[in-house]
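Request:
Um, any thoughts?
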Amino acid sequence: MIKTSLTVTTSKAKPGDARAIDLLMTLAKAAQCFQSADGRFHVRVGLGGCDEILEVRSRAFHDWLLDAYLKEFHALPPRWVVNRVLDALEAGARFAVDKPTVHVRVGRGLGGNKSCYYLDLGDASGTAVEIGAGGWSVVDRPPVHFRRPEGSLPLPEPSHEGSIELLQPFVNLGEPEFRLLIGWMASALRPMASYPVLSIHGERGSSKSTLAQIVRKLIDPQSVPFLWVPRSARELMITAAGGWLLTIDNVSTLPDWLSNGLCSLATGGGIAGRMPFTTDESNVIYAVRPVVLNGIDEFVGRDDLADMSVFLNLPPISPSRRRTEDEFWTQFDRQYPRILGGLLNAVAGALRELPSVKLMELPPMADFAFFGEAIGRALGWPAGAFISAYDNNRRGTSARALEESLLGTALIKMIEWGEPETWTGSPQELLDLLARWVSPCEAQAGKQWPRTPAMLANELRRLAPELRTRGIDILFRRTSTSRLITVQARGD
């Protein structure tokens, strides 16, 4: 991080403009400008008695400069002068050696001599929660850089007298799903390499949106708790990179591009494009983010996204259990600091237990599985309770994927009733063979049935993990003259 001391002039300046640049640069010296690890430029400025990180090209920093200039000189600088000063700030920071990471809401840094996680409380004092294996505490000046996107709201100061069990009366979930929810939220409070997508389903009036809003309030409260379904992959990535938790409400269907984009967000992905007004400079946006989706329909159709998801299916709520919005949120807000404290207790306890966790098999999203099991140990759940809930959740998803696939159903019928335990042949031969196990009406039903050998091979690759859970292995092999598929039924 460096302080700028540049003076910028231009031959095209009008009388007085050079003076305006000098005055504005003098004011800008109060802002510490630096280039972050992702290549973007930020400034640290004093706002409301604490330091805050702003992007150099943000509206917030633009207004900070104008406000300082107006208070000092009782006039506004020309617009082009402000842009030239911003250019100068970025030029001065570009070649600095130190390029720190700027975090949103959660980050990782050194607390003393130990690596700790930090949760930005988002209040005017700039405090954060420091979380380590020994517990958690509120610190005034966290050793990490946080920026606060537009619309961010503060979290309450958590209570050390809290318990995560206080959340149970506010969510419409059974015990296994409640444990998955706690594991998912605790994972979302620490920077990880991947996050499963939290997919909430239920009929109208089952409190889907309420549950999603609770998750939002406990992790990353925003003035706008829900977003519409994005219109493009670029819009999805830009929105996700601009905050921490992404919540999308009332989802009915997920087109393939959006399903692929959510998979990228779950494990880390980015988009690149040419920067405006340049010839070949690339602007890269990268993000890995926790995502919450909710809707009535079972909208996750692609098997790859299903494999990266945790599904919470909410039962209907009887009229006798319903509460008014005011009553519900009044009761929740009364327990809010203690519930948050209980969630932080779970994170700290999991960090303590994590080194001792051993799993016999690694499921998809293995980091989530490890941390969830560590949370279970920290909270005193029975051994393997979290892994059991997660495995059952995934098996239910696999069963639904096979039930909804005409090809998967035909293949299971073929194995169970007709063909030998091991079959090998070309994709065309397998397509002809499977057609015997489908009625003509079903085979003509729109896009469900693969029309070509290539489509057959593609769908089998997507179904292979689900078929494996049913004891059926799909193997692909190429020779110099042909492609072969082997279908093998295991006896286990």
Summary: The first strand starts at residue 2 and ends at 3. Residues 1-13 have pLDDT under 50 and may be disordered.
